[in-house]
């Protein structure tokens, strides 16, 4: 018995040590691409850590979003941003590094001291959730918290997602507004990749729908399923199986906002029908929660997928524009072809 | 020394490590990665606190667990915005404006 216990303890130690070493790798390795790959692996490892902490719902989210989608995002960015120039000045900044290291060590030690001296027994809402769970028509406690007890958090989280997409798209220069999003498609995807995307596309959609459907009673739900759908959509766009949309297309925009809109409408209706914002009328909890989850699944998948699809390719770079401006008098351009104001401000 | 203790220590150390990376990161992209590492440490501390609150037949307190799921999705949105800003800056202004190496010789 104790041998099994020790084995589990050993596994936890190895897991924690490996995650820490990967974190060190992400911070200290010289190359941005290596750091991004390290972070991808770190995210997958953290998913196992979440399993060990009895949080399978978070493990699924971490594997899909923390490891997969963020990894894909920074991996793409590391090839898109030119590498930092090697500088001799870095050597002279060692006092800053030393100060930063001391500060970070102090923060880490302070946090560790606080976490290890937390009161026992720990304060917990588990009993309250268990007592109220039958009233929610949902069996998975985490889903119940997300959809019922803390529904307002979930509502505004999806609003944040839409706002992030709007802010992300506002970075697109006017000139390339009508073009397709261009970060993902490979110029010449290999046949093996195309085949993989074609095979995985229906399979992952099926897995995502399953994950979504069981979310009411078992680990899973709309965020995990939405991240999976976004991921396989990104794969299809990388392989050229699906074309990335353009920002001006109406359908992706509509799908991106339909989740928060329906959620908000049902929440407002709750004021009249059930006496409070985001309260569900008695007897209609299950169908209403299901409806909200379906539209949120669509919105989460579309917003995450659109963010992964990135921005349109830059049509004009600064240098040719400056040269053109210097060498010839500026002709009167139609308004949508004019370069951005902030570029013209530069000397 | 229990398993949860390891993860509590891991979370604390990741926060420190991420903070160090945010301060001294060689490029803006590395700082974004470090910031995500810092956030991951905070989420892990949350998870440890959730696990300590296990009870009523659940493996952990479901309220902090649900908040971590919310946090992961928002962290992705923030990272995406930061990466988008960085790439656009690199395309339009050149990377010298992104690196803090160009602050001057006096530092």
TrEMBL record, chain A:
Q: Which residues form the Na+/H+ antiporter MnhB subunit-related protein domain?
A: 195-304
Q: Where in the cell is it found?
A: Cell membrane
Q: How does it sit in the membrane?
A: Multi-pass membrane protein
Q: Identify the stretch annotated as signal peptide in this record.
A: none
Q: Where is this region: Disordered?
A: 325-347
Keyword Membrane on entry: yes
Compositionally biased tracts (Basic and acidic residues):
337-347
Which stretches are transmembrane?
6-28, 35-53, 59-77, 98-118, 154-172, 193-213, 225-242, 254-275, 287-314
User: What InterPro entries does the database record attribute to this sequence?
Assistant: CPA3_antiporter_subunitB, MnhB, MrpA_C/MbhD
**Domain MrpA C-terminal/MbhD per the UniProt entry, residue ranges:** 19-82
Which cellular component, as a GO term, is one annotated location?
Answer: plasma membrane
Q: Which UniProt keywords apply?
A: Cell membrane, Membrane, Transmembrane, Transmembrane helix
**Where is this protein primarily located?**
membrane
Q: Out of the domains of life, which is the source? A: Bacteria
Q: Which family does it belong to?
A: Belongs to the CPA3 antiporters (TC 2.A.63) subunit B family.
Name this polypeptide is given: DUF4040 domain-containing protein
Organism for this UniProt entry: Lamprobacter modestohalophilus
Automatic annotation (TrEMBL), chain B:
Which Pfam families does UniProt cross-reference here? Oxidored_q2
UniProt keyword terms in alphabetical order: Cell membrane, Membrane, Transmembrane, Transmembrane helix
Regarding the membrane, this protein is recorded as:
Multi-pass membrane protein
- Record's Gene Ontology CC terms? plasma membrane
Q: Extract the InterPro entries matched here.
A: CPA3_antiporter_subunitC (IPR050601), NUOK/Mnh_C1-like (IPR039428)
| Keyword set includes Kinase | no
| Subcellular location, record wording | Cell membrane
Residue ranges spanning the membrane: these are: 6-26, 33-54, 66-87
Q: Which domain of life is it from?
A: Bacteria
Q: Does the keyword Nuclease apply?
A: no
Q: In which broad location class does this protein mainly occur, judging by the first location in its UniProt entry? A: membrane
Return the similarity comment. Answer: Belongs to the CPA3 antiporters (TC 2.A.63) subunit C family.
- Record's protein name: Na+/H+ antiporter subunit C
Which organism is this entry from?
Lamprobacter modestohalophilus
């Amino acid at each position: 018995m104790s041998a099994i216990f020790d084995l589990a303890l050993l596994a936890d130690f190895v897991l924690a040590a490996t995650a820490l070493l990967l974190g060190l790798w992400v911070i200290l390795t010289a190359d941005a691409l290596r750091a991004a790959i390290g972070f991808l692996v770190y995210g997958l490892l953290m998913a196992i850590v979440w399993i060990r902490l009895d949080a399978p719902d978070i493990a699924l989210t971490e594997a899909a979003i923390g490891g997969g989608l963020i990894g894909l995002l920074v991996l793409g960015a590391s090839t898109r941003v030119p590498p930092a120039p090697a500088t001799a000045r870095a050597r002279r900044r060692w006092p800053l590094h030393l100060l930063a290291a001391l500060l970070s060590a102090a923060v880490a030690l302070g946090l560790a001291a606080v976490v290890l001296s937390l009161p026992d027994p720990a304060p917990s809402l588990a009993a309250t959730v268990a007592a109220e769970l039958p009233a929610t028509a949902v069996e998975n406690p985490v889903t119940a918290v997300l959809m019922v007890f803390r529904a307002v958090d979930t509502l505004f989280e999806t609003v944040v997602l839409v706002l992030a997409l709007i802010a992300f798209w506002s970075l697109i220069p006017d000139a390339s507004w009508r073009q397709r999003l261009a970060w993902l498609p490979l110029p010449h995807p290999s046949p093996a990749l195309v085949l993989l995307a074609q095979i995985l596309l229906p399979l992952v959609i099926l897995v995502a729908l399953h994950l979504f459907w069981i979310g009411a009673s078992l680990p899973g739900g709309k965020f995990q399923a939405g991240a999976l759908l976004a991921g396989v959509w990104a794969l299809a766009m990388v392989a050229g199986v699906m074309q990335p949309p353009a920002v001006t297309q109406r359908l992706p925009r509509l799908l991106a906002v339909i989740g928060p809109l329906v959620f908000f409408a049902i929440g407002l209706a709750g004021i009249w029908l059930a006496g409070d914002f985001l309260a569900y009328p008695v007897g209609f909890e299950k169908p209403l929660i299901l409806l909200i989850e379906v539209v949120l699944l669509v919105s989460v998948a579309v917003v995450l997928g659109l963010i992964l699809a990135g921005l349109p390719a830059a049509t004009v770079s600064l240098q040719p524009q400056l040269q053109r401006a210097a060498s010839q008098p500026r002709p009167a351009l139609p308004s949508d072809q004019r370069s951005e104001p902030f570029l013209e401000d530069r000397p | 020394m229990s398993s949860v203790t390891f993860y509590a220590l891991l979370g604390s150390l990741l926060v420190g490590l991420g903070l160090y990376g945010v301060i001294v990161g060689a490029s803006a992209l590395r700082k974004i990665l470090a910031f995500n590492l810092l956030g991951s440490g905070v989420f892990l501390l949350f998870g440890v606190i959730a696990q300590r609150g296990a009870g009523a037949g659940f493996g952990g307190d479901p309220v902090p667990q649900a908040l971590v799921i919310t946090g992961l999705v928002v962290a992705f949105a923030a990272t995406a915005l930061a990466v988008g800003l960085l790439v656009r800056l690199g395309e339009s202004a050149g990377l010298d404006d992104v690196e803090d190496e160009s602050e001057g010789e006096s530092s």
